[in-house]
Write a structure and sequence with these properties.
With 137 residues, the protein is mostly helical. The chain has six helices and four strands; from the N terminus they run E-E-H-E-E-H-H-H-H-H. It has helices at 22-36, 61-75, 83-96, 103-120, 124-127, 129-133, and strands at residues 8-10, 13-14, 41-43, 46-47. Strands 1-3 form a two-stranded parallel ribbon. The chain has a two-stranded parallel sheet with strand order 2-4. The longest helix has 18 residues, at 103-120. The protein is elongated. The model has no long low-confidence stretch (mean pLDDT 94).
């Protein structure tokens, strides 16, 4: 494919359910970029803040640090992302380093997630088992 002026922008919405799996999306984009030896797919995460029960700020610090370590371990492989990507990673890092009271917010998240799961017949425990285990924390 010889399309020198083609660029694609991924704008994944970063929220509680997918924080642990962002690296999978980064890897997908980076592998395509490697094949074309350019930033064909630029990832520009959108950091969700509303509704706030999906906001990554309201997660246990140890879980956020775990997710951040996955991103940090992958960062050295990122060669073709633009500056905006790195700015957004900095914002994610800032939210993940906040140690705040999350209990009520996380309870609300599980309440709404259970409602959605019951309608779509897809369950958090199957999509993100580590996050699902925080229900008992």
């Amino acid at each position: 494919m010889n399309l020198p002026n083609l660029y694609i922008e991924f704008t994944p919405v970063v929220q509680k359910i997918n924080l642990e799996y962002l690296v999978d999306l980064f890897d997908y984009a980076e592998n395509i970029n490697k094949n074309y030896n350019k930033s064909l797919i630029n990832v520009v995460p959108i950091i969700l803040t509303s509704p706030n029960y999906y906001d990554i700020t309201y997660l246990p610090l140890d879980y956020k640090l775990h997710c951040l370590s996955l991103i940090d371990n992958y960062k050295s492989k990122i060669k073709h992302q633009k500056l905006q990507f790195h700015f957004r990673l900095k914002e994610i890092r800032e939210k993940c380093n906040l140690d705040i009271d999350y209990k009520d917010n996380l309870d609300e998240f599980f309440k709404y997630t259970d409602i959605i799961d019951s309608h779509r017949q897809t369950y958090l425990k199957d999509i993100n088992p580590n996050l699902a285990q925080l229900r008992n924390k």
